[in-house]
Amino acid sequence: MKYEYWFAQIPHLSDRKKYLLREYMGTAESIFYIEETKLKKIKFLNEKDANTIIRAKKAVDLGTLLSNLKKKSIRFIPWFSEEFPKKLHEIPDPPYAIYVKGNMPEETNGAAAIVGARQCTAYGEKYALEYGEKLAQCGISIISGLARGIDGLGHRGALMGNGDTYAVLGCGADICYPREHIGLYTDILERGGGIISEFSPGTPPVPHNFPKRNRIISGLSDMVLIMEAREKSGSLITADMALEQGRDVYALPGPVDSVLSRGCNQLIRQGAGILLTPEILLEELGFSSFITGAKIDKNKKVLETKENMVYSRLCPYPKNLSQLAGETSLTAGELLEQLVSLELKGYIKEISKNYYVTL
Amino acid sequence: MSFSTVLSASIQGLEVGFVNVEADVSNGLPAFHMVGYLSSEVKEAAERVRTAIRNSGLDYPAKKTVINLSPATVRKRGAAFDLPIAVSILVSLGQITEKSVRKTLVIGELGLDGCIQKVPGILPIVLEARDAGIPVCIVPKANAPEGALVKGIDVIGVRNLAEAFGFLSGTIRLEPELYPEDKMHVYTNGLPDYSDIQGQKTVKRAVEVAVAGGHNLLLVGPPGSGKSMAAKRIPGIFPVMTLEESMEVTKIYSIMGQVDKEAPLVRQRPFRSVHHTSTKAALIGGGLIPAPGEISLAHGGVLFLDELPEFQRAVLEVLREPLEEHQIRITRTHGSYVFPANFILVAAMNPCACGCYPDLERCTCTPGQIQNYLGKISQPFLDRMDICIEAPKVNYEELSGGNEEESSSKIRERVCRARNIQNARYAGTGIVTNAMLGVKELDKYCTLGKRESKLMEQAFTSLRLTARTYHKILKVSRTIADLDGAETIQEKHIKEAIGYRAMDKKYWGR
Known about the structure:
A: nine-stranded mixed sheet, B: alpha/beta
């Protein structure tokens, strides 16, 4: 196994060439012990590739290679392994190997990816949590990228729904990126989920890794739910890859003038599924028994006239005090008073100084 | 008479110390010695004094001169001893009678031609002299209006050494400087007015509450939203300074040599705008013998820190103590100095580095960058800002609206009413404004009814308040109640105060 691991983690050698070479040679061990002159004669390897392999051979300390993995409790799963997810065999450019900390998603369960913008609005935040939770409650695994914003909230929602959730990283599985999600990282592991990466342990989170890992997020999933995305964003790359891989793409519609919903709305225009409620989505997936009573309509709760006047002016997108003052004709003092009582009653939230959103 | 002594004074921090300038002129090898723990600018007086005496047409024979400035243990600094040294020599030489300088305080810097230059610190020195029962002070003519602010002492302004000599020897009659009655009125015209600002009513309201209760104010808003404009107008809505307040502030300006000759008494509340490159010493005061810093120059008025996150963190942290104590104590090995520093701190900042958050369409910052930007200000410092308000970007209708906006004097009336209520309530306690209430006084003056306490309890848990923010909210709601003319704090006052609380950075920008 150590030869296989050594071969899998050679940098600067494409996955395709690794496949070809291993098919050609049979095992990684024979690649390790091949003579240099023979290696250089192999047709599909150029001079540079051969040198890369030779250099990797010289640099490696085979003795400690596997114990490092063990110490970090990371499993090495190459493509020919039994454990390698079947879903990844289906995709056009599967990774040569994956590294897993914790568990892998159960093949029999459905899996959904929840992805979207890092810098999301309260609107995206709310639905990422809600879809994560409701889908996880039905036993669907939630796959995402542990990033800030929607990704993290998707994981969080799944944990709230007591479901399994799996994070696919753009760095080694032993590195938590972004740092501030360390709590989420450990929670995912503690709750029986897993951290998955195609990059060998210790790989730093460099930018060009992220688009690559997106194909694994969609690859491991049966469907991809996009909560909020700008017009040109990583989330749309994930959507493209999902389509290429034959996964279903769903997008959460949003106001046409919200930059963060433009990507989603565009997807819907191109024919992506519309996320109306988690219940409708679950019904489509055959979880009809799940549908419960209608959600409590917050507007129906008793609000005083002035409170209602202010609340009706708010939306999930931030509005500031002066905008509201212009719209309601209340004095500054009165307006603040209403906003604070709405905040204390839990209808709205102050997301930045004097910017309010509905919950 | 070969020995003589003349009274002068020096400033140590804010304190005035009398200094006896002694001169002894005797036969011997011609020489000029100066002793008495002098800094180099005092030692250099030797050349100035000798030349000035000669250039004033007075006789200075080649004799041995010894000058002593006592008490010898106090460090003497500055050029203000030139004139007393010259006078003392002239007395020793017998050109002025000893009687004429008795009970007279002399101060001033000499030029080589004998002219007398202005010196800092005249007002506190004259005040101290009057309190010590000294009837006459001879000061530079340029400083005379400032000295004349003190009643009950004759302040004689002199232009040059010859004039001082003439006055002391009785050949010239000089009248004491008159109390500048006509210059005591308040200069409110020319002050910027709130009617210049279109819209922004939320900001104006927050400013009104801040001034009414003496609360610190943080303005958050995108560039060009008029934060500085709003801040500059704050002194205009303060209650008019009383004479005592004016004297206190003028004393500080006098020590820094910043008194205006035309209008000696500071009648307008100070507005000190500090640049973000300022050092700790510039802000709180410093030096070997500490001089007051910006926070003391802002005493009784406003200290404005624009671009708050750009300030060095250590510089902001030194403000924490004066913000609580309303004074600053600077300690050196030879003693400690207390400067008053009772000011309203007004700070302005952008919500993120590009200034556009939370407008995600325009904001180019990542959540990490926003946190990083806010991280430059410590939470304890943020907690000391009682009122935090967003200054929104102005839209075109507001800008071009041409609406009749409320003038500063209208706002000032309301502020004064609230201040009067506070003065009556805190009479005799040493407390002036609601912001100065301590935790113990809060129980006494900010009692809450049943519903109000329940509201506070709810707010405390659901908004994750700290003890400090809890107290700040109480104080601000007391002020809002005072503005409302309400005896007790009501729910609506508390709610408004909660709306002004400084954001907890942790939940800012998520």
